[in-house]
Amino acid sequence: MEETNRQVPVTVLTGFLGAGKTTLLNRILTEQHGKKYAVIVNEFGEQGIDNDLVVDADEEVFEMNNGCICCTVRGDLIRILSGLMKRADKLDAIIVETTGLADPAPVAQTFFVDQDVANKTKLDAIVTVADAVHLSSQIEDHHEAEEQIAFGDVILLNKIDLVKDENIEVVTKRIRKINPFAKIIKTTKCGTPLKEILNLDAFSLKRILEVEPDFLESDHDHEHDDDVTSLSFVSDTPLDMEKFQNWFGKLLQTKGQDIMRTKGILNFKDENDRYVFQGVHMLMDASPMGKWPENKKRSSRLVFIGRNLDTMNLKEGFEACKSE
Amino acid sequence: MTTDLNQFLELDKTKFEQRGIQLEIGVPVTCAVSIGNNIAAGFGDGTVRIFSSREKHKTLKAHKGVILCMSRDGNNILTGGDDGFFLKISLNGEINEITNFGSRWVDHVAAYNGNLVCSSGKVVYYWDKNKKEPKSLNHDSTIGGLAFDAKGRRLAVSRYGGVTIWKKDYSNKWKSTKLDWKGSHNKVSFSPDGKYLVTSMQENVLRCWRLKDKLDFAMSGYGSKVKSFAFISDTSYLATSGAIYAICWPFDGEGPMGRKPICLPYIGNKQVTFIEPFPDEKAIFAGLSDGSVFLSQIENENNTIIIRSFTGSEVSAIAMTDDKSSIFIGDMNGNTLWTSIWDQ
Fold first, then answer.
1. What is the pLDDT of residues A87-111, one digit of tens each?
2. Could you name the CATH architecture of A216-319?
3. What's the helix, strand, coil split of chain A in %, to 5?
4. Sequence spans of domains, chain A
């Protein structure tokens, strides 16, 4: 009989400099919710946060010696999360704030790579705070701003009171182009109910089935070569499992640095179960998730977010996995 | 009916559990060390409990948060916590603050002959026993572990990318040498004979340096992270956790290179999570992920006895008194056992 402790959900809070991360953090900490949250902040935080359970961290990213070049993790997080798990009082959630210029991938990858972290905590969601006034120019000038949008499960489009309605439309479209499956919440001073950003379970495979994102064929026009874009595919023809595993495995191995996030629900030939997966760069979580519902069409759906997606022959690769 | 059930449970207990004191403290045991014939144990709620052979145990409210690390300093213990405090605590319960780093954690502590060391973030602070102010030893990345050699002359500091060894030269100036190996290095230890230095890494592997020529090699094959290891009986073996066996690498003669380790199996095939040497013997206490603890002779695997049966929670601390009469065991759910080893 092993220890069966509940895994503490961890929310990653990201966003470009000045977008309003600290405002959101203070909101989370001061709101009367009767919950116990620990907050991991970095020493270059923009403003002070006053709380007993604030832990200072240095963002220390290092590469794992596992032959996977993009498999970087946050060493400080491994140390701090394992320390927090020794506390006498159980935490309801942990929030990790990243610096404005941070790439969210190493934070997410830490939860795939470290067994102790994965046993006791779980990645709940990546919440990106975006500045409605400056986001468009930030995306043009800083690849970090683009990456933060690409990785977000929830995007808080903040400071909408300072922007005209038609410009909000433009910014929203820009976000959608990078990331079609994130939930966008428009806010002023990060005002949103906490249930919209905490305890979302966005990284659980079960959740992917519940909130099937819009798997629309996204229009894909070329602007810069290194723009982050998304592509999605749908097919009613069952896939051949072996062909798919070969193609997808090789794809992540060779292009994993450019592919930031993937999600999908797969319909394999001669299999009764639905297969669900989600990944961050080369790391992936996948599992059969029960039978297809009787009243639902069996179809495979697949989304990629990343750079240079048009050079990877994704459509041809996916088509070739069909069983007929 | 109830009586019958109790009898049955009693039979399931080891003789050590039957004659010892078992407590359910309910917060994780994070560390334990011996002070003479007493044991000091640190807990996740900031308390230190001192177990003595005759008396009832004493509870001290030491830190405001988790006690992250503990080391013995003569008749005192040193503790570091996530409340930022570095404390010295005497056997009779007197608590002295050495320093306080605020919201920065004290991750590691060590002591040798009255000289005190702690690390917080990337900095090691060294208090010479004759001085009030500490000397700061800076590193490029966060410190994963600290260890003195057996003579207290060298201080090893593990970090990302390897280990820094600090030593005072003849003019009393600090000099450092580096042992490099890519990756995150955690717990570090010199071999008792001073010939080797070992670290456990973020990957499921140990890295070892032979210090005379800096030859380095890996000890691998583990199913999980090696969180606990110890040199046994001077430098005969290095016993390690991280597998369903206690893996014991031979360190006598020319060392472990090209030789096979001894793998001690345990009932139930659970992961070994904690290793504590039986002083001066080629024997170890191995704590498992289900809370059970075994004592085994390394060169005779049939000579294994069960000290504590399973509790359902990973063993996180084992310590034996200096006179080798009693042992303390603690786990992540706060179940403790304090018992004599020998039949009365």
1. 988 899 999 999 888 888 999 999 8
2. 2-Layer Sandwich (3.30)
3. 30, 30, 40
4. 8-203, 216-319
Alpha-carbon distance of A322 to A318, in angstroms, equals 7
Chain B residues with beta carbon closer than 8 angstroms to that of A83:
66, 68, 82, 105
Residue B2's pLDDT band, with cuts at 50, 70 and 90, is very low
DSSP string covering A225-269: TT-EEEEEEEESSPBPHHHHHHHHHHHHHHHTTTEEEEEEEE-BT
Collapsing DSSP to helix, strand or coil, A29 comes out as helix
Tell me if A88 and B201 make a contact (CB, 8 A cut-off): no
Which of A62-67's residues contact partners 24+ apart within 8 Å by CB, and which partners?
A62/B160, A62/B183, A62/B184, A62/B202, A63/B182, A63/B183, A64/A113, A64/B183, A64/B202, A64/B203, A65/B182, A65/B183, A65/B201, A65/B203, A66/B203
**Other CB atoms within 10 Å distance of the CB of residue A226:** 10
Structure confidence at residue B9 as a pLDDT band (50, 70, 90) = low
Nearest to B66 among A63, A64, A87 (CB): A87
Nearest residue to A182 (alpha-carbon basis) of A166, A197, A162, A161 = A197
What's the rounded Cα separation, in Å, for the pair B208 and B219?
A: 8
Q: Are strands B237-240 and B229-232 parallel, antiparallel or unpaired?
A: antiparallel
Query: Would you give the DSSP letter of residue A322?
Result: B
pLDDT in tens, A196-225: 999 998 888 877 776 655 554 444 554 555
Distance in angstroms (rounded) separating the CA atoms of residues B290 and B309? 9
Q: Which of B68, B203, B225 lies closest to A65 in CB terms?
A: B203
Residue with the two structure tokens 């963002």: A59
Q: How many whole angstroms separate alpha carbon B256 and alpha carbon B328?
A: 31
**How is residue B277 written in tokens?**
């040497």
Sheet holding B245-250, edge to edge: B229-232, B237-240, B245-250, B262-265
Q: Which of A55, A79, A85 sits opposite B103 (nearest CB)?
A: A55
DSSP state of B64: S
| CATH 1.10.10.10 for domain A8-203 | no
Q: Taking the model in full, what pTM does it have?
A: 0.88
Domains A8-203 and A216-319 share a fold: no
End-to-end alpha carbon distance in chain B: 32
With a CB cutoff of 8 Å and minimum separation 6, the contacts of A47 are A22
The two three-digit tokens of residue A85, written as one number:
């798990």
Cα B208 to Cα A218: distance, rounded to the nearest angstrom: 53
Please provide the DSSP assignment of A42-78 as one string.
ETT-SS----TTEEEE---EEE-SSS-TT-EEEHHHH
Q: Which of A91, A96, A57, A60 is nearest to A75 (CA)?
A: A60
